[in-house]
Amino acid sequence: MMKLNECDVLCIGTALIDSIIKGFDPDPVSASGYRAVSGSLHVGGEAVNEALALAKLGNRPAILCGIGQDEAGEMIVHQLREAGVDTSLIQRSEHPTPVTTMFVRDDGTRQSITNRAHFYNFHPEQYLNESLRPQALILGSLFRAPFDDPAVTDAVLRFAYNQGIPVFADTKLPNSRPCTLEEIRFSLPLIDWITPNEDEARFYTGKDEPEEMAEVFLQYGVKNVIIKLGAKGCCFRSSGASCSLPAFPIEAVDATGAGDNFLAGFVSELLQGSTVEDALRFANACGAICTTAAGSSAGLKNRAQVREFLKRQTAIG
Asked: pTM for this structure?
């Protein structure tokens, strides 16, 4: 089994179970009954999705997250270990493991229902020490627990900065305590890459155009900004470079976890020595492949699959 100090990417953030319901019919079949095309359970949460994707792409990820002493938590730990993710930093507590109910539409878009278990703030900064030397740290859910607490966010980011570990921060819309860019303005310059989707970037910056959204993050001191635009691709900006890439045409089944697979693919490819543009193209492919199956971890299989997907896209183009 991989030793913790051998991991190349540390993923910190949310772990949960997704209960995915497809084809929900809002018309009741009885006084208390409804129908759907299918229902299934999947491990999920930003940190879990990213760690699983990284392992499939040939990396050696470790995960730091909080889950309960329950069956849902056991399911998460089992799948992570089976995939080769180091789970020794997982924190188990009396708090239940979060379970999210996801209603997935025919076009792959979705709505979710959360509960109080999602808002429990474990303290990842308490479990970081100088023996951890990954090549990258992914902060999976900036602005959501535990990273809706500015003190926790700052402590984790300063640990990474002091260790010389580049930080990739994905973002989420708040589902509990709102946290603004202004509240973490002194921490934002410690982030090397931030990767909000279009809705998140609009919410936090108040801007409507991707270039303007990116500029706000840059003004706060973030070094590199990627705005994920869903079916429109992605937009990258730094102080000295910029580019936009279109998405790959694909029939989406379920978009759950597509952004997490995108980020995992991007980090993995950067660590391979690729240019930013090539890494973004690889990331777009990982996100697209993710949407071809229900659940955040069913679509992506391995790096060879992504390479073959890109080869077919090049031939089509």
From this structure: 0.93
